[in-house]
């Protein structure tokens, strides 16, 4: 019987010819990523279990990217960065991107891609649920806790139960005003926040393969919002073009077999997709933007691993150029590279930074920032009972910092169009003009 | 592994996410420092919306004031318990507050894995939904040999699902002890 791409990658890393869903296997890990929130706990468990002087299994396979609580006065948060530094020093780790240096990157999931750690066919674990993002590169990637990460640090291995696969195929062409965020919010709304629990979400079809790497990352990023174990898209020329610019390491491209078995298969007509929001307080609380136009907003937030990439800001800038926002609008590039691009990329001769400033938006430093609330002094953190439209990935109660706030998840197009009017607004006519 | 777990119930609903279990602003404390980690118990479940906190009445605090330990040690949940982030601080804060078992309809997988691999408490699955059956404060008794739950307050019995394939890790204590038992890593 044939195998899916996820099954093939897992089998290869377990030294097996084949696996089937439900098999419990031990896999060899190619990359382990951790950050400032989970690194300190991971290192403490590693030392407790393997010894104070134990060494990590492979220095070259450990990547440490502080990104969550960075630009804050919180003493505990800053102490945690010191713990990362200390561990990196003790272990002499080469892949560390320190806060306050030129080497600082920002949000780990995009930094992994930009620094060449996302390579087709590999297995990447990270202490962050949105590690599923890397699946956009035709690799297996998923989030784990501190204990599992400490186990990997010491052994280079971890157990995995092989997930069943679900196939989401999009054929044809997406409308110009529809972004990957609309597509994933649509699918999560269809299957629910536990609709893919412990399953692989595989994206296929010519419409998916027409997307840029950044848009593909948005699709895979939010697999976890449906409970998915991983999101994955087979690598093609778009993938290899991106990877080749970032690393010269070898990789292996896997494809799902024609006769691979899927738990679920659905084909969507891409041209029928619309702009979607997830209403408070769940990513599966789907509505068409056109059904929510009476919702008045207090602020807009464009940022995070899923909504703070160059593609996302190009989209927002296209709508904001030459206009003024009507509500507080926060722009948070995911990484330094994106931030630098905001200064370089232009629309009609004007840089994106200037477009945002002239529109009256506030620009923040690259980090996770208010996507998950964070310490009280976090840029863009929601207050009181504010109604927020956000390109982030979660609108759980209190997620952006205030338990009384209401968060609508939306595409950068929808967030920008709504910033211009002060209520939820369909971006279609802005985009098409 | 204990054969019996007894304690008072604290009842929650569906899709209790990790931001509700431990809001992100608190993820700054040490999980290994014995004093500092008490903060996690103090803030455990403080993100749960009031009307959902301690069903059926709601607005029941899990921990009181500055206490880091809760009088409730068995959590009853609906579907998709622990969805969201991979933060191990979520099962950890519950253990620090004194939780010994969770009984839910279903779990988000990372939270389930963390609970088992870290040995924080036992995540049971119920066969029939218990959120509307059990009241916060009910006196419960879990029999791990018979796989049953007794509600001593209401004098009712329920079967629980078998712990299945993770029972070996739970019996060993955590993934490290399991790996030592099976020879994957050297005994300390």
Describe the overall structure.
The complex is a heterodimer of chains A (433) and B (188). Helices cover 30% and strands 18% of the residues of chain A. Chain A has 433 residues and is of the alpha/beta class. Chain A has 2 domains: 5-268, Aconitase, domain 3 (2-Layer Sandwich); 278-432, Aconitase, domain 3. In chain A, the strands form 6 sheets. Chain A has a 5-stranded parallel β-sheet, covered by helices on one side. Chain A has a 4-stranded parallel β-sheet with strand order 3-2-4-5, with helices on one face. Chain A has a 4-stranded parallel β-sheet with strand order 9-8-7-10. The longest helix of chain A is centred in the N-terminal third of the chain and has 17 residues, at 75-91. Chain A is globular and about 55 Å long. The mean pLDDT of chain A is 98. Chain B has one domain: Aconitase, domain 4 (Alpha-Beta Barrel), CATH 3.20.19. Chain B has helices at 18-21, 38-43, 89-96, 109-117, 167-172, 175-181; strands at 4-11, 72-77, 101-104, 122-125, 139-143, 148-151, 156-159. The two termini of chain B are 20 Å apart.
Which key features would you list for this structure?
heterodimer; A: alpha/beta; Aconitase, domain 3; 2 domains; five-stranded parallel β-sheet; B: alpha/beta; Aconitase, domain 4
């Amino acid at each position: 019987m044939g195998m899916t791409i996820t099954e093939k990658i897992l089998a290869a890393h377990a030294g097996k010819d084949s696996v089937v869903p439900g098999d419990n296997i031990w896999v060899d890990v190619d990359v382990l990523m951790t950050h400032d929130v989970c690194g300190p706990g991971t290192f403490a468990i590693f030392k407790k279990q393997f010894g104070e002087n134990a060494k990590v299994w492979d220095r070259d396979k450990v990547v440490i990217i502080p990104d969550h609580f960075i630009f804050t006065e919180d003493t505990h948060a800053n102490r945690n960065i010191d713990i990362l530094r200390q561990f990196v020093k003790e272990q002499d780790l080469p892949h560390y991107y320190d806060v306050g240096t030129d080497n600082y990157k920002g949000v780990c999931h995009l930094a992994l891609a930009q620094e060449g750690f996302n390579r087709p066919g590999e297995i990447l674990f990270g202490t962050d649920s949105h590690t599923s993002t890397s699946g956009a590169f035709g690799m297996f990637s998923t989030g784990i806790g501190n204990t599992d990460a400490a186990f990997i640090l010491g052994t280079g291995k971890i157990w995995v139960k092989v997930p069943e696969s679900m196939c989401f195929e999009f054929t044809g062409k997406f409308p110009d005003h529809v972004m990957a965020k609309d597509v994933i919010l649509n699918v999560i709304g269809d299957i629910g926040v536990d609709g893919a629990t412990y399953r692989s979400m595989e994206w296929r079809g010519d419409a998916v393969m027409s997307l840029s790497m950044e848009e593909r990352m948005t699709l895979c990023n939010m697999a976890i919002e449906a409970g998915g174990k991983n999101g994955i898209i087979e690598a093609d020329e778009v993938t290899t073009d991106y990877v080749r610019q970032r690393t010269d390491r070898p990789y292996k491209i896997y494809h799902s077999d024609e006769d691979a078995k899927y738990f679920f298969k659905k084909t969507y007509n891409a041209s029928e997709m619309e702009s979607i929001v997830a209403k408070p307080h769940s990513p599966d609380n789907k509505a068409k933007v056109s059904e929510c136009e009476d919702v008045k907003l207090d602020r807009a937030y464009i940022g995070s691993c899923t909504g703070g990439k160059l593609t996302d800001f190009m989209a927002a800038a296209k709508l904001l150029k030459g206009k003024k926002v009507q509500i507080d609008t926060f722009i948070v590039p995911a990484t330094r590279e994106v931030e630098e691009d905001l200064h370089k990329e232009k629309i009609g001769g004007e840089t994106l930074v200037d477009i945002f400033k002239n529109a009256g938006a506030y620009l923040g430093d690259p980090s996770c920032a208010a996507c998950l609330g964070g310490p009280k002094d976090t840029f863009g953190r929601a207050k009181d009972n504010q109604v927020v439209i956000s390109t982030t990935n979660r609108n759980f109660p209190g997620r952006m910092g205030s338990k009384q706030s209401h968060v609508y998840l939306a595409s950068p197009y929808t967030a920008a169009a709504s910033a211009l009017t002060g209520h939820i607004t369909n971006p279609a006519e802005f985009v098409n003009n | 592994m204990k054969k019996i777990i007894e304690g008072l119930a604290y009842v929650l609903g569906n899709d209790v996410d990790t931001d509700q279990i431990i809001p992100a602003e608190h993820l700054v404390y040490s999980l290994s420092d014995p004093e500092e980690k008490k903060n996690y118990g103090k803030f455990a479940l403080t993100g749960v919306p009031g009307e959902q906190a301690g069903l059926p009445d709601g607005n029941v605090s899990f921990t009181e004031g500055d206490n880091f330990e809760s009088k409730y040690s068995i959590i009853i949940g609906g579907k998709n318990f622990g969805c969201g982030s991979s933060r191990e601080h979520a099962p950890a804060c519950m253990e620090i507050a004194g939780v010994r078992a969770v009984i839910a309809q279903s779990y988000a997988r990372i939270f389930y894995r963390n609970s088992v691999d870290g040995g924080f408490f036992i995540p049971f699955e119920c066969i029939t939904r218990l959120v509307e059956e059990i009241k916060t404060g009910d006196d419960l008794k879990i029999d791990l040999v018979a796989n049953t739950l007794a509600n001593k307050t209401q004098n009712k019995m329920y079967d629980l699902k078998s712990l299945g394939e993770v029972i070996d890790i739970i019996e060993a204590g955590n993934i490290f002890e399991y790996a030592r038992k099976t020879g994957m890593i050297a005994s300390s």
